[in-house]
Write a structure and sequence with these properties.
The chain has 349 residues and is an alpha+beta fold. It has helices spanning 17-28, 33-36, 55-62, 92-101, 161-167, 195-207, 225-241, 246-271, 277-309, 319-348, and strands at residues 2-4, 41-49, 68-73, 80-86, 105-111, 127-136, 141-146, 155-160, 177-183, 211-214, 218-222.
Length: 349
């Protein structure tokens, strides 16, 4: 018995693994929501530990959460029916089959260390929710959608029952359930919102500063000022404690994807006659330049990281180059503000 649900990899830009998979379902149903996702908001953020946590302790305990990052805000779960199941390997194949037969897609917590062909395969333990959209019982394999070969780029992938079962997390500090989602038939109508007002509101939120989300041992700080705080207060510790450049590149790549989305948004608004030809040209140019400057910073800083990793006993000689990277972050923070203000000005004049 074989069961495949409709899905089309959403590859226009990256938001996060949950939303990109859900957008892949909506795309396969020709839902206009995939275009409306361009209007989603986002913020830079920084995780700031409270007193008593040294930078070294932070990296040892929760290194993957540290550093400058970008969070996109998009809630498309209302277009789906959602259920949660306990995370267990017991009868897992039967459970997945039963839910697929009811037209539910499943987010299953796995460790991609056990995923053949994945970039993490037998190299690094990586807890992750994988998106199951089908299975072939006779040939004992699953059909999944995942960024298994290239980070932040969804592709269809097949994996055997044995490898899949081996990868399932029996216990996890981060995940404790399987999430099942089903597309709501007839939910493809347009958003009943004023697009320009919504976008202006989101851009103003993007500019907002000093928004703090408190947690037990740390705070999340949101806003463009996080770029400057990271550069001035965290960058040196980040450089000297980081074990590899993968996480750093991942975070900056998410920023680049946000601006890739903005370029597509500008094109969308131009086609809807919201922007004039000259506005379209100007905004496309300044957002393309902004995206490219983040890429230059990502590449140059990653090269510096690699050199520092091979010279851990002689880090003083890198002080001037680290200062240049700090200055570039601060320059980009200023450019983020100016670019966003210009977008708002064009939309509200």
């Amino acid at each position: 018995m074989k069961k495949l649900l409709s899905v089309e990899p959403f590859q226009d830009y990256w938001i996060d693994c949950i939303n990109n998979n859900l957008l892949s379902v909506l795309l396969s149903h020709n839902s206009p929501i995939t275009k409306k996702a361009l209007l989603s908001s986002g913020n830079f953020y920084l995780k700031d530990f409270k007193a008593g946590y040294s930078q070294k302790k932070q990296f040892e305990e929760t290194g993957k959460h540290l550093g400058l990052d970008f969070h996109s805000k998009l809630d498309i779960l209302p277009w789906f029916v959602k259920e949660s199941l306990p995370l267990t390997k017991k009868d897992i194949h039967k459970t997945i089959y039963e839910y697929l037969m009811k037209d539910y897609y499943l987010f299953v917590p796995v460790d991609r260390f056990y995923f053949p062909e994945c970039f993490d395969f037998e190299k690094k333990h990586s807890e992750h929710r994988v998106f199951v959209y089908g299975m072939d019982v006779q040939n004992e394999k699953y059909y999944i959608l995942d960024d298994y070969r290239q980070q932040l780029y969804l592709e269809k992938y097949e994996i055997s029952f044995a490898d899949f079962e081996r990868s399932i997390l029996s216990k996890s500090h981060e995940y404790d359930s399987i999430t099942c989602v089903k597309y709501r038939e007839g939910s493809s109508e347009e958003f009943d919102q004023d697009e320009v007002n919504l976008l202006v509101s989101n851009l103003k939120t993007f500019l907002s500063e000093n928004k703090v989300e408190p947690r037990e041992s740390y705070n999340y700080h949101y806003g463009i000022s996080c770029i400057e705080r990271f550069a001035n207060e965290y960058l040196i510790g980040y450089f000297t404690n980081l074990k590899d450049t993968e996480l750093f590149q991942h975070h900056l790549y998410k920023i680049m994807e946000h601006h890739k989305k903005n370029i597509l948004l500008i094109d969308y608004l131009h086609k809807k006659k919201v922007l004039t030809d000259s506005d379209f040209t100007e905004l496309t140019e300044i957002y393309s330049q902004l995206k490219n400057q983040w890429e230059v910073l990502k590449n140059s800083a990653s090269i510096l990281f690699q050199r520092m990793l091979s010279s851990v006993n002689n880090l003083d000689r890198f002080s001037n180059k680290i200062k240049k990277v700090q200055d570039k972050f601060i320059t980009l923070a200023d450019l983020e503000r100016k670019t966003t203000l210009r977008f708002i000005e064009v939309l509200t004049r």
